[in-house]
Every structure is written in structure tokens, then in C-alpha cells.
Amino acid sequence: MNKPILIGMTAIALTLGACGRKTPPAEIPPVEQPPAADPNSTDPNSLEVVELPALQADLVAKAGSDTIYFGTDEYSLDEASKATLAAQARWLLANPGVRASIEGHCDERGTREYNQALGERRANATRDFLLSQGVPADRMTVTSWGKERPVATGSNEEAWAQNRRAATVIIR
Amino acid sequence: MKMDRAELAGTGAALAFHAALIAALTLSLAHVNSTPEPPSMEVEFVEDVGLEAAAPTSIPTPPPASQAPEIGEAQPDQPAPAPLPAATQPRVAPTPTPRPVQRQQPRPAPAKPAPRVSRIGDDFLKGIAESPSKSDASAKPAAATFSATARANIGQAILRQVQPCADRQPFIGEDANKVRLTINLKLARSGRLIRPPTVIRTSGDPDLRAKYGELLEDQVRRIFAQCTPLRLPAELYDTPTGGWNDFTFTYRVN
Amino acid sequence: MRMILTMLLAGIASTAIAQDTQESEPAPELVGGSVRSNVAIAVPVMPGDAVGRQVSEVIVSDLRSTGLFTPLGPGGLPGYSVEEAGNPAYPSWRNAGVSALVSGYIEPRADGRMTVACYLHDVTAGRELTHQGFAVTSANWRQAAHKCADLVYARLSGQQPYLDTRIVYVAETGPKNNRQKRIALMDSDGSNNRYLTVGRHTVVTPRFSPRGDRLVYVSYIGRKPRVLLYDVASGQERLLIPGNHITFAPRFSPDGRDVVFSMAEGGNTDIYIVSASGGQPRRLTSAPGADTSPSFSPDGRQIVFESDRSGTQQLYVMSADGGGQRRISFGGGRYASPVWSPAGNMIAFTKIAGPFRIGVMNAGGGGERILTNGWQDEGPSWAPNGQFVMFHRTAQGAGATRLYAVPVGGGSARIMPTPVGGSDPSWSPINN
Predict the structure, then answer these.
(1) Is residue B196 situated within a structural domain?
(2) Does B36 touch chain C (CB under 8 A)?
(3) DSSP symbols for chain B
(4) Domain shared by C266 and C318, yes or no
(5) Same domain, C133 and C216
(6) C151 with C172, same domain?
(7) Is residue C27 part of a domain?
(8) Chain C residues within 8 A of A113 when measuring between CB atoms
(9) Residue C40: closest CA among chain B residues belongs to which residue?
């Protein structure tokens, strides 16, 4: 191997060795402290997020649903969605100790990267409405799953309609 | 040649510099760390392109052109068949041309029935004899000229004979037809190549030439390996004004 | 005296003219055919070592995968000795009806490795076309076989080699609504498949660095898509961008120093570039809309990307500093996931017009050709010699995904041998 490549690889190895870890092992213990303890960390494992299933069930019970739905290639909220979100906002205000991950999803009829962007539009629109209902910004985080997590497996209108959604996930 | 001092000094310096250059080149080459090559192979220069004596099966073997009719006086001639390489090809295992002639000398009388072969036809004078035989020589006028017409006809004849092999060449790329090779052939009287085809010139866009030049040369070599020996009139092989012993043409794919 | 001179001159001139007339006639032209048929090429068992049979088998499989050859052997073909490798009996091969022959031998070296010698012969013309020897450890015999197949392919097709390469992709298992995804690495013929992640987090779109020593990919670690930078030799990885940002669609610049990617924020997705060794990202696009799937031209001067700023997904090209953004797709339908070809003259993309199909166009736009006909074909990646495009195909319903490669000049797509399902392939450069 010639010199420049060796030097470059050594540099990268040293850089990466300074912070990263080897490929994450199968089981990672849950992160106890609040996430994003070090905003400048490049350690992937500093990002773990903990879901709270019991509280999630309570949200669904009290607000009616933790999910709203969208039209094809759309990210606007219809009246039903707004009503659901208003109820979610009330629950969040009544449970101040937890945060919410607002997660946008798409159906399979888009290319992968475009759907990652579209999912974020949906999650962002949802978060904006919850903001307007009084939920503090620092209690919410936005993400996009693109088309990676469908709930319905068919390749038909019914399945696609169920997959175009934004879910409010209760996290620590 | 007298040299003065300045010239001597100059020449000496030039020689020393050249020696140093050669030494430096040799040393630097010794350090080259290239992909290990297997022991270098002797490249044999096969003069006889088309290793096997491939009999021209499509054309019936004509009789020895000078076989006399009826009377059965078998002319002293070599045994006919075309597959035998011509005696003018020095490298090929020589057919014992002189000997059969001598052997046949005593035979003429008893051989009477044999020559009554009905293959003798109108074209016996135009037979594709590989070497001129007596009757051939006597049938044709003394000196053939390689006129412009003859040149054109010969060119067409050569290309016609190799066209079936040219037609079989594989597709090598959409823009391969933009490259043209100019090829020179040196032919023996037998109609075989004396040496592999030589590319005199390659024309076309430089990038396309780099990409397709070698592949087109491959095709020309294959064409002339498969579709030889060529069958051409002996008297036009080598005349004072030219002949088919030396033939230049261009090649491209469609 | 003058008379004699003039006559001499006239004589010389006329001879010259006569000569000229002869030589200025255009040479007759032979036109060869362009028969689109595969070359019958024989690959007998390579002598010298027991692994010779496997070497020949890999060569046969590689040559078949190019779509240009009908390889024969190694079974059913006569063997030969090490000494005969360079001097085959052309006439008997010709009688067998083959046009070309791959021979060679394997011999041990003083340093413990072995030499795999590879010869290519033109059987029809009865001559050797090329030969080369490859020194490899005995464990690495496969690479010598790929190198030999590349030698044959390049010499007979006029193209650059591409068989001695690796593919990084996402291996997929499980049902559509609980799909497990892992980053996987394999040789271009499907061998030596290994996993780089364990499948705990969803991972997508891995891409090779220009020298094949690093990857960028997206992991949903912490429930958010984030770009990771991964060193192949050591397995070390880190976040490309620290903190709480949604980042995806990463690609290296041709010099390997930067990574261009998308970041989504506040309902808008734009393209950014950052040094692979860290630092502040620079923003390249700011139009409202989703700007994503950036891909550098091989000279590093331009970036092609997709944007829906016009209302639908279309392809745009800009300078590497973000200037001069202009649309290049006008064919009707939507265009996504553009990738610039290694020679710089073409862009591959996903065309959405009902189904998703893989297509190519000229780098300036125009000359569009659709190469595939699946229901959902997407995510093209170029072979390093620009002759093939790999992509993944998703089936309707259960949503099984498989990798395919299609010749850019036209022809059927061929499935890639992966152990389980696969998506998001990225082709490495030629291995050194």
C-alpha cells in the first residue's frame, strides 16, 4: 500500500478511535440519564431513547389515539387529526414528566430518501400543531421513519392509507 | 576523421552522460515492483497463418490442370489435390515434388485408363493450380500485367472470399463502426499469409481508436486465419507492375 | 543539353504521375459483421494446485455474469499440464467449436504465497492475446480468479474491468411490518458475504468511499435517521454530524474528503456538505421543498440531486458550491435517486411513472433510456467501469427485495446472489 493511503487510514483510525466504539453489541443497556447529554458527541450510542409503554397506553386511552393520518404525498392536517392532536396536547400538559417523539411515516409508493423527507414534513406539521396547543418545544422531538416501518403489509389503498401517519411516542 | 580537442572533450562528455543515463535507467528498472509475471514465454512467430491445411471444401478439387485428355499420356505432374501446400512454401513439410514425377515416368503406358476422368471440363485451363504447370504456361500469354482493372478485380475477389468470415465477427460496441483500419497483407503463392496482417493506419476519434483498435485487429487476424488460403490467379501473383502478393485494404465493422 | 534535361524531367514526372495514379486509388474496403452472440470460451481446470478447479469455476461464473460469453468448463473439458498452459493445441480447441481459451497454472512462491498465472488465447486465430500472473495468499485465491476473469473480459470487450469488486448493501429479513435490516458486504459474485451491523437498528443506504476503505450509511439509532461514518478495516464508526439532527442520503466526494448529505429541519430538507474529518457543515441548497439524493460528478465539480421544488420530484444539477442550480429532467413523470456515472457522461435514476423503473440519461439531460421493467425498481449504483447498474427490486404485497444488475447498453437484469433479501446496493471501486 502506498504512503498517502497508509497515512490517511492511520489518521482516520486515530480520529475514529478517539471517539467511536466498535459495532454496537446486541444488547445495549437503556440510557438512564436524559438524552443528548453531550450535544457535541459523535458517539452513536449516546443517542439511545427509551420508550415508556405504560404511559403510551394511557395516552391512547385518554386521548383516543396516538396516531393521525395523511393523504397521498400530503402533510396537511384534517379536522379529525386536529381534534386528536388537541386531546394529545391536553394529556401531555397533564403529564409533565415525560417527552414525546413525533414520528412521521410514509407508504411504500415513494423512493427511499424522498420518503425520509416527507416523513419529517408530516412529523413537523404535527409538532407545530401541538406547539400551538401549548406543549413546550423542549418536550418534543421530531423524527422521520420514511417508509421503513409500515403497520399494514398490503400493496393496496387500504394498507397505504394506514401507513401514511404521524405517531406520538412517549419517551423518557 | 580528425577531431580537435573541443570535439573530443564534447564527445567524451556525451558518451559519459549516455553511459550514466543507461546505468540509471537500468538501476531504476531493477527496482520496479510490478505484478509478478509468469516466466516469459517464447513467442513463436508462426509464418504459416492458418495452422491446419484446411481443404477448400466448397470448391470441387479440380484435376491437375494439365492432365491431357483421352490418350492417357499422363503428363509428369505432381499429384493434384489442393490441400497439399505448394512447393514454393519453404517452411512447410515439403511435398516430395520431384519424386512422384520420377516415379511416374515408367507408368504412362499402363496408366491409360486412369486419366479418362470425366472431370475434365471447359475450365481446365483456368484451374486453380497452385503452381504453374506446363500446359497452363502454354495456354496463357507470356506476360500478365497487373493493370488497374486487374488490381480492382483481384481486390474484389479477395474481399469476396473473406466476406463470410468477416460477417461472423462479433459485435464489439455501438460506436466501433467509427474506427477504420488500413491493413497490409503479404501473401504466398498458396494463397496463405506469409506473416500476420499488418495495421498500417488506424483512423477515427482517438478515444475510439484506443478502445476498439486492438479488437478490430483481432477480427482481421481471425478473418484471415479462417478464410485462407485464398484462390487467386497464379499469373497475377507477382508481375512487373504489381500483384496480389502484396495487398492493402481497409477494414471496419458496420 | 536543355532538351535532354527537359525530356528527363518529363520522364520522371510522368513516371511519378503514373505511380501516383496507381497509389491514389482508394484501397478496397472490407466491412465486418456485428453478430450479437456470446463468445464460446473454454476454461479447463487450471493445473498446479488442488484449488485450480475452484479458480476455474469462479472464472466461468464471472465470465457468464458479464452476459458476453458462453463459458464452457471446467468440468467436461480435457486437462493440460503446467507446461502446456502457454502452448495449447489450438486445432483441437477449434474443432471443439470454441473461439477463446483461458488457461494458466498455479505454483507456490518462496514467500509462502502462490502465483496464479492466467493466459487468454484466441483459438480462431491460433495465438495468445494476453497473460498475467497474480501473487496471492492461498486463502485469497478467489481474488486471483476475479483478476483473471477481469483480464479476459477487458481484453475481449475493450472495456475496463469490474469483476474484482465488492458490493455493500442492506440485507433484509422478516415480514414487511417487522423488517430486520443489516449492513452487509460481499464480493461482486456473492461470495464472502458478511454482516457489519447486527440488525438492532434499522439501517439504509450504505455507500463506499472512493477508495473503498470507508462507508457512510444511515442508522435509526435513537429513533432518528442519522449518517454514520464507518471504517471498513477497523469497524470503528462515528456520527457524521453530532447532536439531534435528522441526516440522511450521504455520499462521499470523489476525493474522499467530504460527505454531501441531506438534513431535514422544520419541515424542509436541504443538501449540506461537511468534511469527513469533522467540522461545520456548509449548506448548499435552501429552496423550500425536499432536496435530497445528492451525487457528485466524477471530477468533483458538480452535484446532481432530486428536488420537488417545482411541485414534483425532478433532477437538478448544481456546482459543488451550490451555485447554478438547474433542472435537467423533463421527460414527464417523476425522477429520483440520481447517480452520476464513473465516466461522467451519464446519470442513472429512478423514474416514477406508475411503477418505479431504473433509467439513464446524458449528464446534461436528454437521451433518456429506461433499463428495467419491475414494479418497484429503485436505488441505482454504477459498476466502476460504467457498463452495469445495480439496483433493488421490491415485490408487490409481501415486499421481498432483491438486488439486480442490468447492462447499461441494454439487456435483461440479472439477479445478484445474496443469502437473504437485499436493497440499497453500492458498488466498490476495483480492488487493488
Answers:
(1) yes
(2) yes
(3) ----HHHHHHHHHHHHHHHHHHHHHHHHHHT--PPPPPSPPP----SSSS-S----TTSPPPPPTTPPPSS----S-----TTSPPTT-SSSPPP--HHHHHHHTT-TTTTTTTT--TT--GGGGG---SS--HHHHHHS-S-----HHHHHHHHHHHHHHHHHHHHTPBP--TTGGG-EEEEEEEB-TTSSBSS--EEEEEES-HHHHHHHHHHHHHHHHHHHHHS-S----GGGSSBTTB-TTEEEEEEEE-
(4) yes
(5) no
(6) no
(7) no
(8) 205, 248-249, 262, 292-293, 306, 336-337
(9) B170
Q: Could you tell me the three cell numbers for B199?
A: 495495421
Question: pLDDT by residue (tens digit) across A73-118?
Answer: 999 999 999 999 999 999 999 999 999 999 999 999 999 999 999 9
**Could you tell me if B146 lies within 8 Å of chain C, comparing CB atoms?**
no
Note down the domain range covering C275.
166-427
User: Is the domain of B129 the same as that of B179?
Assistant: no
Residue C321 and residue C324: Cα distance in Å, rounded? 9
Chain B, 60-99: which have a CB under 8 Å from a chain C CB? none
Domain ranges of chain A: 53-171
Please report which helix (H) or strand (E) contains residue C304, including its range.
strand C302-307
| CB-based touch B/A (3+ pairs, under 8 A) | no
ipTM of the complex: 0.91
**CA terminus-to-terminus distance, chain C:** 77
pTM: 0.76
Whether residues B182 and B243 share a domain: the answer is yes
Q: Which of C157, C179, C204 is the last residue of a domain?
A: C157
Q: Which CATH class is domain A53-171?
A: alpha beta
| Cβ of residue C376 closer than 8 Å to a chain A Cβ | yes
Q: Are C264 and A148 within 8 A, CB to CB?
A: no
Query: Is residue B73 one of the residues assigned to a domain?
Result: yes
- Least Cα separation, residue C332 to chain B (angstroms): 27
Average pLDDT over residues B189-196: 96
Angstroms from C224 CA to nearest CA on chain B: 47
Whether residue B116 is found in the same domain as residue B185: no
C21 belongs to a structural domain: no
Our count of domains for chain C comes to: 2
Grid coordinates representing A170?
412517549
For residue range A141-163, list pLDDT tens digits in order: 999 999 999 999 999 999 999 99
At B90, the amino acid letter reads P
pLDDT tens per residue, range C58-113:
999 999 999 999 999 999 999 999 999 999 999 999 999 999 999 999 999 999 99
Q: Is residue B126 part of a domain?
A: yes
Query: To the nearest whole number, what is the mean pLDDT of chain C?
Result: 94
DSSP label of C221: G
Of the partner residues C175, C265, C376, the one whose CB lies closest to the CB of residue A153: C175
Question: A23: which chain C residues are within 8 Å (Cβ-Cβ)?
Answer: 196-198, 235, 237
Q: Which residues of A touch C292 (CB under 8 A)?
A: 113-114, 116-117
Task: State how far residue C128 is from chain B, nearest Cα, in angstroms.
Answer: 9
Question: Could you give the CA distance from residue C345 to residue C339 in angstroms, rounded to a whole number?
Answer: 11
Single out the residue in C133, C157, C181 at which a domain terminates.
C157
User: Are residue B246 and residue B158 in the same domain, yes or no?
Assistant: yes
Say yes or no: C106 and C190 in one domain.
no
**Sole residue written with cell 420537488:** C308
Look up the CATH number of the domain holding residue B221. Answer: 3.30.1150.10
Residue C350: list chain A partners with CB under 8 A: 111
pLDDT (tens digit per residue) in A13-65: 555 555 544 554 444 444 333 454 577 888 888 888 999 999 999 999 999 99
Q: Which domain holds residue B159?
A: 148-251
Residue numbers of C between 392 and 411 with CB closer than 8 Å to A: 394, 396-399
Put simply, the answer to whether A111 touches C222 (Cβ < 8 Å) is no
Flag if C221 and A36 touch (Cβ within 8 Å). Answer: no
User: How many residue contacts between A and C have a Cβ separation below 8 Å?
Assistant: 181
User: Do B65 and B128 fall within a single domain?
Assistant: yes
Whether B155 is in a domain gets the answer: yes
For residues B134 and B152, membership in a common domain is answered with no
Percentage of residues in chain B with pLDDT exceeding 70?
A: 45
**Can you give the pLDDT at residue B79?**
38
